[in-house]
Amino acid sequence: MSSQEIPDENLPTVQDTAHTAVEVADNPFADPGLPAHKPRIQDIDERAAKRSERTVALFFTLSMLATIGFIASYVVFPVDKITYIWPFGHVSALNFSLGLTLGVALFTIGAGAVHWARTLMSDVEVADDRHPIEAEPEAKAKVLADFAEGAKESALGRRKLIRNTMFGALALVPLSGVVLLRDLGPLPEKKLRKSLWAQGKQLINMNTMEPLRPEDVVVGSLTFAMPQGLSEEAEDFNNQIAKAALMIVRIRPEDIKDARERKWAHEGIVAFSKICTHVGCPISLYEQQTHHVLCPCHQSTFDLSDGARVIFGPAGHALPQLRIGVNSEGNLEALGDFEEPVGPAFWERG
Question: Would you tell me the crossing angle of helices 93-119 and 46-76 to the nearest 10 degrees?
C-alpha cells in the first residue's frame, strides 16, 4: 500500500509551528508537584501518639530483655547440651538460645526505630534543589540547621520514655559482642586437671572391655585401658577418654630405673597416660627392647623404664603415671588419679 492510500486519520500529526516543537522539547513532562500532606492520627491525637510511644518503648524493652537472655544463655546452657526443638530436631541448646535471643534483640531495636519513624517523627516531604558536590559554608550551615530541625521534629527530647528505653537497648546490645569473647579460650576451671580415675576404679581392657588381671599383661606387651564405668556410648566419652586413656606395659622390675615408677607399679606393670604431652596425640608405638614409646605425630619419644621422661622430640614434660594395685578380685585397679594434668601444657596450668 502506498502512502497515498493511507487514510488521513492514520497519518502522524505534524506540528504547525516551530514554537510548539521547542516548547515540547524543553518540557516533555509536566511537573506533578508534591501531593498534599495528609496528617496521621498521631499528629492530631495525643492519645494515639502516647500509644505509639509506648509501643516503641516496648520494642526497646524487649531488646534489653533479649540481650540479658543472650548473656544468661552462656551461664545456663553447657556447650555440649543437645535438646529437641520442634521443628528443628535435635540442636545445641546453647547455639539455639544465643541465635534466638540475639535475633530478637536486634530485630526489636529495628522494629522500634521503624515504628517511631513512621508514627511519631515528622513525615512532611520537603523538596530540595541539587547543589554542587563541594560543600560551601552556606551548605554546611544548612546541614546543621536541618539536623537541629530533624532532632526537634523527632521529639526525642519531649518523648523521654522512648529516649530512655532506646538508650538502654543500644547500651546493652554491644554486651553481646563482649560475651562472645568468652569463646577465645576456656574459663578458669579445674576440668583439665582431673580425670575419671579414682581410688578403686578397675582398669578395663579397651579391646575386650573386660577388667585387666596381672596375668593378662606379659613382659614386652602393650595394652590400652580405660576406667571402669566409662562407656563408648556416653555423650562425653571423647572428652573423658582424652584424659583417661592408659598405656599398660610390663617391665622386669630390675629394668625400671625410676624409684617412684617402681613404687607405683605392680610387679613391673606400669600405667602411663596415652596422651602425648606435646599436642595431645595418642601414643601407640612401643619398642620392647628399649621400652621407648613414640608419638606418631611429631616423633616425641618417652622412656617408660625411666619415669616416661622425654628423650627426643618437642614434648615438654614426661607422661603422667597412674598408681595401680590389685583388688580383692585379683583385677588391676587405680589407687587414685593422676597427680599432674594429662596432655600438653595449657595457659592456666601453673
Answer: 160
